[in-house]
Amino acid sequence: MATTAAPIVRKPRDEEIDIFGLTHTGLVRRVNQDNFLICAMRKSIVVHGSSLEDAKTRFGGTERVALVAMVADGVGGGQTGDAASRLAVEAVMQYVNRTMRCYSSEDETDDAGFLKSLEAAALAGHEDILRQAEDNPAMRGMATTLTLWLGVWPRAYILQVGDSRCYAMRDGELWQITRDQTMAQELVDAGALNPAEAKGTRWAHVLSSSIGGPQTAPVVHRLNQYWGQIGLLCSDGLTKHVSDDRIRERLLAMTSARQGCEALLQDALDAGGSDNITIVIGRTVGQPDA
To answer: Which H or E element spans position 160?
Structure first.
C-alpha cells in the first residue's frame, strides 16, 4: 500500500524553542555527580567582502544545524562519579561536533551511518574514561550513564547508556523512549521478575551498562519531531520519586520549560530527594506557518 509523505514543515526559529535544564544535589547526597549540557550547533556564514549590495546582511549569520541536550549520572565514590559524568559529556560532545560537520540534515541516505556514529561517540567516551582511570588509580571504578537528545529537524536521535531516561510527549500522550539498562530490567526481560517486583528490588539501580563500567551497550533511537512535542531528559533521581503520571501532569500544565523543570524538581525533593536530580525539558512554542 502506498504511503503519503509527511508534509514538510519549517524548522522552529531560535526564539520558538523553549529549553531549560537544572541539576540539584538532593537532600541526602553530599556531592552532585550529575552533569548536563544544552547547546546549539551552528553553521556560520561570514562575508568578508562583496560587490553585492547588503551581502553581509543577506548572507551573513549563523544557522542552527542541531540542538543537543545531554544528561549524565555518575557512579563512584567521592568525586569520581562527577568526574566520570563530566568526562563523558565532554568526550561525546567533541565526537558529535566532528560528526555533524560531515552530516547534512537534508540527506537521509546515510541515516544508518549516522546512527552508528552516535554509538561510536558513546564508545569513545567509554574509552576516554578507561584511559583516565588507568592513568590515575584514584579514579578507577568511575562510570556514568549518558542520555543524549540530538535534534536535527525534523528528526531527533536519542543515544542512551545506563538508566537516565528520555521521554517525549505529544498530543497529551507521554511515552518513555529509552529502556533502563539495569539488572532489574534485565530480569524483567528474562521473565524472572515482573515490573512491580523490579521497582523494589536492590537490582533496580544496578546498571547493566554504563560508560566506563564493565560493560557498555549504547542504544540509539530515531524519531520524528513535531511542533508542540515536548522532550524530557532526566537522571533517576527524578524517576525514583516521581511517577510517569505525575511527569505527564507537570508537562501538560507547565507554562515554560523552566517552570516545568522546577516543578518536577520540587516533586522529587518533596518525596525524599534521595539522589542527585537532573532534568532537561525542551519544546517548540508557537505554530508553523500555514
So the answer is: strand 155-161
Cα-flanking dihedrals φ and ψ of residue 123, to 5°? Answer: -65, -35
Chain mean pLDDT for the chain: 88
In the chain, % of residues over pLDDT 90: 64
- H/E stretch holding 72: strand 61-75
- Given a cut of 90, whether residue 246 has pLDDT beyond it is yes
Enumerate residues 6+ apart whose C-beta is below 8 A from 92. Answer: 70, 121, 122, 124, 125, 146, 148, 159
CA angle centred on 161, ends 137 and 178, rounded to 5°: 160
Query: 248: buried, middle or exposed (CB in 10 Å: 19+, 13-18, 0-12)?
Result: middle
Domains in the chain: boundaries? 16-44+59-284
Domain 16-44+59-284: state its class. Answer: alpha beta
Whether residue 111 is predicted with pLDDT greater than 80 in this model: the reply is: no
Cα–Cα distance between 127 and 169 in angstroms, integer? 34
Radius of gyration of the chain measured on its C-alpha atoms: 20
Burial of 234 (0-12, 13-18, 19+ CB in 10 A): buried
Decide if pLDDT at 105 tops 70: no
Grid coordinates of 213: 563500567
Residue 1 has pLDDT above 50, yes or no: no
The three grid cell numbers given for residue 222, joined into one nine-digit string: 530515531
- Taking residues 39-59, what's their average pLDDT? 77
Per-residue pLDDT at 7:
52
